[in-house]
Amino acid sequence: MQELHDAPLAPLTTFRLGGPATRLITATTDAEVIEAVRDADAHGTPLLVIGGGSNLVIGDKGFDGTALRIATRGFELGGTTLELAAGEVWTDAVARTAEAGLAGIECLSGIPGSAGATPIQNVGAYGQEVSSTITEVVAYDRRAGRTVTLANEECAFSYRHSRFKTDPERYVVLRVRFGLEDADGLSAPVKYAETARVLGVEAGDRVPLATARETVLKLRAGKGMVLDPEDHDTWSAGSFFTNPILTDADFAVFRTRARKRLGDGAEPPAYPAGQGHTKTSAAWLIDKAGFTKGYGTGPARISTKHTLALTNRGAATTEDLLALAREVVAGVREAFGITLVNEPVTVGVSL
């Protein structure tokens, strides 16, 4: 177990932003993770758990406490059952399952970060969410002082949310178990309209696993959503805002407001989101409020490839990023009466 003091955290995040931690521990086994957590809790030391750092916005002053970097490894595949250690690189694990001919997470290819973060955020993209394949999450329960195994239904998954996100100080994810599908080398049914269009199939059709994965990777890369150290459009947390979910009544008000602003022919994106609710597009809201691709003149700007990504152009500070985020939130609220919610976790700062 490696321990450093006054350790830079910016290199551990995809934003490359944030000040140092008083103490940084890198744990490579579950036992080391638990030991570090117990030590911090016993001494009343603030604890920041870091996986792949793809969903973190750390303040410029850093973190006054112990940062625990989870670097555990473990990929165990038995039949259609997959178990991943929390520190496994997510996109590498997805690639291995596709190569093994197993479907269920292939459309989550290219998403940066670690396996342990996926249930926290209920990571999803291109018509798939991890909640549809996760069977169990093994975690250290800080309140109970023991390791627990939570079945899928105990995780309280919803859109970009979970029990772990609701109570972030309680659980530290150690392992994630998935139930995948052997569909004779084919993908899960294609659900996302853009993916189906590019593949030239209908929604609900299956395609070869490799084709599905390669298509998603190309789509993500075209939006700057696949990490590339040479491309500042990928110095981000991916989608910075979640897609708003409105009651049907609120969506009707929003639609009227959008048409008044943009013209009678304007039709905001609408997707079913459970009884009495409609989901709309944060990217559409941002763009139509005037924040187009590449918006900004400072060191933090909107991606030139996707309006949902706020990026560090190489010399930004966290405050630069937050100033841009606040400008976007205020502009969308003024234009459409909807308040966007940030998807990344903020540490020592807030919008």
Can you give a write-up of this model?
With 351 residues, the chain is α+β, with helices and mostly antiparallel strands. It is built from nine helices and 20 strands. The chain has helices at residues 30-42, 90-99, 118-121, 163-166, 193-199, 209-222, 248-262, 282-288, 318-336; strands at 2-8, 20-27, 47-50, 56-58, 63-70, 75-78, 81-85, 102-103, 124-125, 128-129, 134-141, 146-151, 171-179, 181-182, 245-247, 271-272, 277-279, 300-302, 310-312, 345-347. The chain has a five-stranded antiparallel sheet with strand order 6-7-13-11-12. A four-stranded mixed sheet has the order 1-2-5-3, covered by helices on one side. Strand 18 (300-302) and strand 19 (310-312) form a beta hairpin. It is globular and about 60 Å long. The two termini are 34 Å apart. The model has no long low-confidence stretch (mean pLDDT 97).
